[in-house]
């Protein structure tokens, strides 16, 4: 099984800074005394918040770019590569837009395509910079379910988020940062609590356990006043 490490940070903490803080501790495995560039490109896959390609690629073209590290300079994708691209598009639900220009998709749809591209790379570690920032509620759940499934399949996932609920939903390990400093680290149940979140977000929240059909789930509830009727 892989591990999902989620970094929760305040709004004023830049995502890029958070990722650099983590990646500074990570080095590639060496072969014959040195780390090869090709091996590093297969080891990590990065999903940015936004991406605008320089050419009018189709969605399939964008996802297929994930196979680039496995191809020679002038090689084309083979049957195995095509099958992997198809599987990743179906997994993220973007196969229905396969032939559409990527730039014509909504921000949320583009994000799903970028995740499919990263999965097509078949990395050992998936690095996600606020992957749900532009997604609607349903697609946020799709991404979080995929994060959990990927770790069960053996992949490591490093995700940066502003939303502590996402850490509670899918993380094995959580690091909370504020003003460039790690303020808490551990399992979600140990570190994502009411006192910690009120301190870093300067907001009234309540972290609690609720009964759901499949058991007990911990959630973060914003306290913004009486329920509207």
Q: Provide the CATH topology.
A: Rossmann fold
Determine the strand fraction and express it as a percent band: 15-25%
Task: List SSEs in N-to-C order.
Answer: EHHEHHHEHEHEEHHEE
Gyration radius, to the nearest Å? 19 Å
Q: Mean of residue pLDDT?
A: 82
The helix fraction, in percent, is: 25-40%
The N- and C-terminal alpha carbons lie at a distance of 45 Å
Number of strands: 8
Give the C-level CATH assignment. Answer: Alpha Beta
Question: CATH-wise, what's the superfamily?
Answer: P-loop containing nucleotide triphosphate hydrolases
Shape: elongated
**Uncertain parts:** 11-16, 25-34
Task: Summarize the main sheet.
Answer: 6 strands, mixed
* Structural class label: alpha/beta
GO molecular function: ATP binding; ATP hydrolysis activity
InterPro entries: ABC_transporter-like_ATP-bd, ABC_transporter-like_CS, P-loop_NTPase
Protein name: ABC-type cobalamin/Fe3+-siderophore transport system, ATPase component
Pfam families: ABC_tran
